[in-house]
């Protein structure tokens, strides 16, 4: 059960990544009512550049524990990209149940602004270093210009238009509704009403994706403390769980419009349809569409009809990305999973400004890795 959770998120943070993660941890400790000495487990992740521009940090979790002043019995670093924090929550619950540990800290984030300023991404950060490459398949992935994951998802969106007739206006309508949710949440970074025309008139970054349907990397950390007891919070835990790992690189996929979410959600599709709210990974507008389809919420090719008729607000018939998603909150260090988990916990604990009424369960799906290598699906509730 989650005893404490907090965020420290900024568009651009002037201090170090270490200062930033310490701020998030201190807030989570205060909510949980525990001390640093009470932490027995630690789970995190690392991506190139997100820790003050370092392409690599040797024995990374050890360095973080030393800085934070914690001495856990168990440490781990998960390398799944966006859904890493969700996989970490599952592992933390198992460690508590089967290993007798208590108070496991999940700490995820970094400084996305530093990477953004280099005009590279975490997938291409090695371009700043002569003779350094993060894969022997770089030419297969990059072609003439390395824009992963943007150009990859743009290709998916283009194919979705061709095969299923999904219009640019359909994706734009999703962005308009998510922005409204972000406005209502009271803590969204990007605010103000937008229209379908606003989305479609924003610059095309990689055809057909426009600026207003692409996530913006920011600086931030989320801290979650998983414990035997919930403390003052609702006893929220994982009710259903699945994860899937497809190790093929994007150019080797038989069909780029199918994601590992189709596998990670397979064993509890009926339960998914009866959840009270949905938080789906939104690195791009098309990412949300793929997950709606692959988790069985809608059929392939029916998104246009779905988004036109469905009220996805917190008071609507299908609350979706109720905090506005990471497209409006900002994406800490190129990973959105912690944004989804944080909003889910706000809703389940009755802390949200735009509160879903009578909420007892939230479906979360995270996707990440090399565009779509990994997926974690879960239902949270009590």
Automatic annotation (TrEMBL):
Lineage: Archaea, Methanobacteriati, Thermoplasmatota, Thermoplasmata, Thermoplasmatales
GO biological process, one term: isoprenoid biosynthetic process
PANTHER family: ACETYL-COA C-ACETYLTRANSFERASE, LIPID-TRANSFER PROTEIN, PUTATIVE-RELATED
Name of the protein in question: Acetyl-CoA acetyltransferase
Source organism per UniProt: Acidiplasma aeolicum
All copies of domain Thiolase C-terminal, residue ranges: 242-381
Gene3D superfamilies: 3.40.47.10
Superkingdom, natural source: Archaea
Record's keyword annotation contains Transferase: yes
This protein's UniProt keywords: Isoprene biosynthesis, Transferase
Record has Transferase as a keyword: yes
SUPFAM superfamilies: Thiolase-like
Recorded GO MF terms: acyltransferase activity, transferring groups other than amino-acyl groups
